[in-house]
Amino acid sequence: MDLVKLYNRQVSLPEWLEKMNHPLASKIRTEDNDKRPRMGILNKIIGLPYDKPVRMSAREIANNTFEFQKFLEEHGSELCALRLVPKEEGLPKFRNRGFTVANSVPWFFEQKIDPNKYIAEIVPHSESPIWSTIFVVNAHGIFGEIIKGGHNLLTQGFYDEVKPITFSYDWNDWKLSEENAEAVTELVNIAKYLFVKDLGKQQELTKELNVNLFNNYLGGYFETVSHDDTGLWFIDYNRILGDLYSNYICEAHKVSVQSDNKILIGQSGSGGSAIGKVVIISPNQITGTVIQAGDVLVCNMTSPDYLPLMQKAVAVITDLGGILSHAAIVCRELKKPAVVGTKNATQVLKDGDLVEVDGDNGTVRII
Q: N or C, where is the chain less crowded by C-beta within 10 Å?
């Protein structure tokens, strides 16, 4: 499988949710568009480190203003992520990543947007990520995943040899799916920025952002990445996703044990259980493939192209992915049991196998 090609077809979580007509898709998109100004407020109040962008009107780039020319002279050779954020509801968001500022300008014009209707965010980008995380803070604790490498490995679910480590924190102890002292150090460092004991700051956060706090920790959905050269950045903070996951609990220390060769072990991508016949579908088989209601979709990893099949399937099983990857979130919103990160489901299972998918425990049993 060409994972690079498949990853290039990935879209943001709001776009996933829009494709499935999720009732909160519009609000989640707005929340996503405004995330960096919101993190800027957190930076001001509690010192939260984030990938602070240079914001300007898209018109400044389109007109090649003197100010933009000066910015290019000073920063044109720096790597960035260029986000074109709409000012009006309903317009699409555009973004690229990993190009220099100067090389992002031709891409800007290729999008053929109305520059009067967009804000340009030039976000710093580093090619030396050490750790990335994706997690939720709610009344029960802190739950998520951490991985060596870029955050796209977690959000999109495509990774190679290094797999995500699941973690949980119950306000007393950190529990990880595997022992890793460096990962614990990273998590402790991240959590300290979300711990707000000062009552005055809590009141200011509530007034400015209408936040939730749990055991003095800022609640919500978060993504972070740390680098050799720039240190730790928070790159996403979403209150609505935090509310969707207000009752989410992941027992990171709970490991399923394989009792016989008829069981596949993965992770819980979405809870529930289902029984159905396996249909293995590779990316080049999606177009024209007919899946029957009640079939179990099995694939290396889902992309947006799989969404119609996911909607019809009774359950989903993947080789890759993690507990908070976009695909896992989509399965939860579809109320479909999903077992992710099995490593080899597409090799072990065969078309027509009758299987029981246990999304609560992350196991698949061949019946």
A: C
**When comparing pLDDT for 1 and 43, which is higher?**
43
Residues 328/338, Cβ–Cβ less than 8 Å: yes
What is the number of alpha carbons within 13 Å of residue 145 lying toward its C-beta?
Answer: 26
Which residue, among 272, 316, 325, has the nearest Cα to 291 in the 3D structure? 316
Pairing of strands 213-214, 217-218: antiparallel
Are 359 and 265 in contact by the 8 Å Cβ rule? The answer is: no
Would you say residue 138 lies in a domain? yes
For residue 200, the Cα-to-chain-centroid distance in whole angstroms is 32
Task: State the number of CA atoms in the 13 A half-sphere of 255 facing the CB.
Answer: 11
- Give the CATH number, domain containing residue 279: 3.50.30.10
The Cα 69–Cα 85 span in angstroms is: 21
How far apart (Å, rounded) are the C-alpha atoms in residues 87 and 117?
Answer: 5
At 28, is the secondary structure helix, strand, or coil?
helix
Would you tell me the crossing angle of helices 66-75 and 101-110 to the nearest 10 degrees?
130
Structural domain boundaries enclosing 97: 52-124
Residues in Cβ contact with 359 at an 8 Å cutoff, skipping those fewer than 6 apart:
268, 269, 270, 271, 272, 273, 274, 315, 337, 338, 339
Buried b (16+ CB within 10 A) or exposed e, 297-335: bbbbbbbbebbebbbebbbbbbbbbbbbbbbbbbbbbbe
**How many whole angstroms separate alpha carbon 307 and alpha carbon 277?**
18
The answer to whether residue 5 is domain-embedded is: no
223 shares a domain with 133: yes
pTM to 2 decimal places: 0.88
Q: Is the pLDDT of residue 77 over 90?
A: yes
High-pLDDT (> 90) share of the chain, %: 71
pLDDT tens digits along 52-73: 999 999 999 999 999 999 999 9
> Is 217 found in the same domain as 155?
yes
Helix H segments across the chain?
A: 3-8, 13-19, 25-33, 35-46, 58-62, 66-75, 101-110, 152-155, 181-194, 199-209, 239-244, 307-312, 326-334, 345-348
Length of the chain: 367
Q: 311 lies in a domain?
A: yes
Whole-angstrom CA distances from 170 to 21, 136, 140, 194, 217 are 34, 12, 7, 15, 12
Helix (H, G, I), strand (E, B) or coil at 103: helix
